[in-house]
Amino acid sequence: MTVTLFVPRDAASLALGAEKVASAIAAEIAGRGLDARIVRNGSRGMFWLEPLVEIRTDHGRVAYGPVKAGDVKSLFDAGFLTGADHPLCMGLTKDIPFLRQQTRLTFSRCGVTDPLSIEDYRHYQGLRGLEKAISLTQAEIVQEVTDSGLRGRGGAGFPTGIKWKTVMEAAGPQKYIVCNADEGDSATFADRMIMEGDPFVLIEGMAIAGIATGATKGYIYTRSEYPHAIASMGKAIEIARAAGILSSSVLGSKHSFDMEVRSGAGAYVCGEETALLNSLEGKRGVVRAKPPLPALKGFLGRPTVVNNVISLASIPVIMDRGAPFYRDFGMGRSRGTIPIQIAGNVKYGGLYETAFGLTLGEIVDHIGGGTATGRPVKAVQVGGPLGAYFPRALFDTPFDYEAFAARDGLIGHAGITVFDDTADLMKQARFAMEFCAIESCAKCTPCRIGSTRGVETVDRIARGIEPEKNKALLADLCNTMKFGSLCALGGFTPYPVMSAMTHFPEDFAPVPMVEAAE
Amino acid sequence: MTMPITADDNTQRSRNIIRNLKHLEGPMLPILHALQAEFGHVPDEVKPVIADELNLSRAEVHGVITFYPDFRHHPGGRHVLKICRAEACQSMGSDDLADRVRQLLGIDFHQTTADGSVTLEPVYCLGLCACAPAAMLDGDVYGRVDEHCLSEIVGEIGL
């Protein structure tokens, strides 16, 4: 019987040598005349174990990792095609604690299936949500999404069902579904993993959104920094067209839907939905003033749903299992599951999908296992470059939109960057301002000028020039940026800056002249 | 205009590329990406061609091209090395890595080595944040970049 091996093709796995491992395995199979085939799956999201090679056995899939090309011969010698023991053997994949403790709804297939096999996709419950949606009216689909409590996973947390309702009710000969896959926040890679590891779920989610709102055309706007995701999405769309999922008659229904992938060009601000729409139209990625809402006047001035990848990829399971099933996970007004991305200086970094409500401490210390360097955790930045730095004293904060907001932070796209005690939070605050200056679209003054003045002010504090006066000035500047900027780039840059100043005042203290001279 | 034949040739090649893509809704970025793939940068002489084909002013075309960091105004090196400079990579020492790369290549960010072998660019996130620090050489990605990995990258560049 043919043995099936899995070697991930996720970009992070490739970055850690998966291609060489796959080649070495193929060479051993050929050289030893074995009956085995290699499936290039997505990643399970346990990056300290990547490249993670799996073997399908009668007892389930057995994991080996992290595998280097040089380990392959010894794996074959040990008989790993039968799931035999080896120093790299992690046992059954599903029993690895990091994976076993998760609630994988959106990521249920990621790392399990061949991302470009529509047969695999159907076998693992794919397309059931779309089939269900086809049997419902538009209003019923929108109601189901509203009842699920799903909120935009891109960071803003706006209720998805309400957005869809606005577009459904908007009049217009042409409406659009635009998937915001411009995942530019450091510490986030959930969108990339879905596009590379389970692209059909995004296609299915967008098709459902199209049917629900009357939109017949979809665009995925992603990043040029994600060539692997662009390639796999492009292939998946072709396969979905051939399979009748994307057609003038979606799965044989009266609904029409088709879509394209578009690549950005290195501008972070295009992750902001109105800048994204301008960019998609072929203009400078400058932020638009709201109103009008994109739901009413979006792409090319037409009614447009703009949703994040994870929001759209969560739709199929909501339609398939029903709103109550999804809504029963989570806490407060944060319903369902959230793919937390644990990154930076962390021992067990990766993607952890779970219901809302875990505390930050549980995520960083218990799941992440502390720092990779083994030093104490000093700070964690939650929510990407526009998110606040949290000290250990706030590790009791539950992962929930409102709980983070109450502590002057944000969940954002659920990325967490861990820093050890060598981090200098004044340097991080300076970087936040510098990043805003580099990436500002320059439309509004607080963001365009404030960010540059912010860098200069931090530099004066660092040099010990009137530190108290300059700290007050920096706080005042942050206030202006927060309330005077047009979008979240200028408006949220104060989060990392103010949190660094508030929680790590020692890093903003004047340094002795001897060190300063170095 | 010392090489008018080449310029005309570029104009015709770019016109063909644009005509293949101009039917798209919002064709500008796909066109610019395609032109850069063809020429290695977006040459000045194609701007009026884009403007003509898309019925825009040259200023509008220039404005779009200059907004996006991806679009090069001059030819880059034979390879492009991008080092991630964002927070997750910073937490794993990417600032030191950046210094080391600058030292090894003898150039700063946004510069090309004198022999034209490589252009060094910063990138703000490659989505490889759980295996930081990260880098990308042309389309190939590298995670947990250490001295060993760096020498592999430099070997690929052929310095």
TrEMBL record, chain A:
GO terms for molecular function: 4 iron, 4 sulfur cluster binding; FMN binding; metal ion binding; NADH dehydrogenase (ubiquinone) activity. The keyword Transferase does not apply. InterPro entries: NADH-UbQ_OxRdtase_51kDa_CS (IPR001949), Nuo51_FMN-bd (IPR011538), Nuo51_FMN-bd_sf (IPR037225), Nuop51_4Fe4S-bd (IPR019575), Nuop51_4Fe4S-bd_sf (IPR037207), Thioredoxin-like_sf (IPR036249). Pfam families: Complex1_51K (PF01512), NADH_4Fe-4S (PF10589). Its cofactor is FMN; [4Fe-4S] cluster. Gene3D superfamilies: 3.10.20.600, 6.10.250.1450, NADH-ubiquinone oxidoreductase 51kDa subunit, NADH-ubiquinone oxidoreductase 51kDa subunit, iron-sulphur binding domain. Residues 426-477 form the NADH-ubiquinone oxidoreductase 51kDa subunit iron-sulphur binding domain. The keyword Metal-binding applies. Transmembrane segments: none annotated. Keywords: 4Fe-4S, Iron, Iron-sulfur, Metal-binding. Belongs to the complex I 51 kDa subunit family. NDH-1 shuttles electrons from NADH, via FMN and iron-sulfur (Fe-S) centers, to quinones in the respiratory chain. The immediate electron acceptor for the enzyme in this species is believed to be ubiquinone. Couples the redox reaction to proton translocation (for every two electrons transferred, four hydrogen ions are translocated across the cytoplasmic membrane), and thus conserves the redox energy in a proton gradient. This is NADH-quinone oxidoreductase subunit NuoF.
Automatic annotation (TrEMBL), chain B:
Binds 1 [2Fe-2S] cluster. InterPro entries: NADP_DH_HndA-like (IPR028431), NuoE-like (IPR002023), NuoE_N (IPR041921), Thioredoxin-like_sf (IPR036249). It comes from the Bacteria. Keywords: 2Fe-2S, Iron, Iron-sulfur, Metal-binding. Its cofactor is [2Fe-2S] cluster. [2Fe-2S] cluster binds at C84, C89, C125, C129. One of its GO terms (molecular function) is oxidoreductase activity. The keyword Membrane does not apply. Pfam families: 2Fe-2S_thioredx. CDD domains: TRX_Fd_NuoE_FDH_gamma (cd03081). Belongs to the complex I 24 kDa subunit family. This is Formate dehydrogenase subunit gamma. It comes from Aliirhizobium smilacinae.
